[in-house]
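Model it.
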Amino acid sequence: MGILAVIAPGSTAAIVFLAICLALVLAFEFSNGFHDTANAVATVIYTHSLKPVVAVVWSGVMNFLGVMLGGIAVAYALVELIPPDALSPPDGGIAAGMLAAIFVSALGWNVATWLLGIPNSSSHALIGALVGIAVEDSLRHGRALGQGVDWHEVWDVLLSLLVSPVLGFGLAMAAFWLLKKVVHDEALYTPPEGGKPPVWWMRGILVFTCTAVSFAHGTNDGQKSIGLIMLTVIGLFPMSYALNTDMTGAQLHGIAGDMGAAADLIGRYGDDRRQLGVAAARDIGRRFGDAASGSAIPDAERPALRNDMNLVLTELKRAGEAPGIGEADRKRAHEVHETLMGTAQYVPWWVRVLSALCLGAGTMIGYKRIVTTLGEKLGKQHLAPAQGAAAEVVAAGLIGAAGFGGFPVSTTHVVTGGIAGTMVASGAGIESGMLKQIAVAWILTLPATVALSAGLFYLLS
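Modeled.
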């Protein structure tokens, strides 16, 4: 038995561990702020468009607003990477080992790369930690990795992480070329000297793009900490947070009516846990069909119901992706999955505020290392105002679209790719040594965090 497996839900030990997990999650989000958001302020600081203190405070405020006004699709896209029995253990235990493994792995890698001044992705580190949980859970239960790990979801997430910097590189290169064709002020294409800011309209563009990237970062990366905080409170206090108690009787009865179709689809197209999924769908149908509202469901039943919902959601995804499934059945599996997911996806207001505060505060501290790397070490010459504007305009558009579309992307990757694209477009070229460091960090992040997370999960659970 793992050293954390003896903690009982709702006990004093669980409360203590909740405080530790929340501290780790908030530390991760804090590190995300000073690690990733330095990308948003790098251009305005380095081009002297804003004073450093003004820039980071303004960026922190915009990050706060981004978290508060953004959605939650990214948060739960990440949560779905975790196997149901690790997320909500069916034996009534709490997910203590899972939580500790995720937070320590992702936070440790984040801090290590920051200390080296390498613009590494917090998103990448977090995804690796989540995949590590799925890998260890599969090995522990003797399941093939192809069944225990939702590789379809993993590839979707990794594809967005891979494509976004390539798009950032290409689009920023094109934006810089266009700007150079239209505007012929040579001062915009040379590195700033003597603390003099660029011409007023370029300064306005740089301040606007800093604002937009910071807000977009909040809508995307802020959701990741929201997902982690929800993992924590659901995993440690399932009786209070496993279900959205604001669900109405009509919503519950609608879901109950879909569970017959869910059981049928899972039974025909599910994976090696299809029988468990069928039983879970029928149990949800029975319990939700008898409930007058979410708050009317007894506290003691909520952890088991959450586990059933997680299992049915996973099996419906597997069914919808099964080879040979007909188009009508695939569409129906998706519809039922989305309906059930709509009730499982909820965020209390205080979770959003807590995430926003930590991301905003983290933005205001520790930005200098990454700013120096992007401004002075990425290209063979220092960053020019036009390069910063082109990179940040593209980054704001890509990150904002991804945040509201439910795609986890890396602010670091997008902005770094954009600046690199402008360096190539300007003829300055890229500093190969720094590019190799960033590439090595990118390549190592996933296997390193997977191994760290899986190993810690094995030891603790």
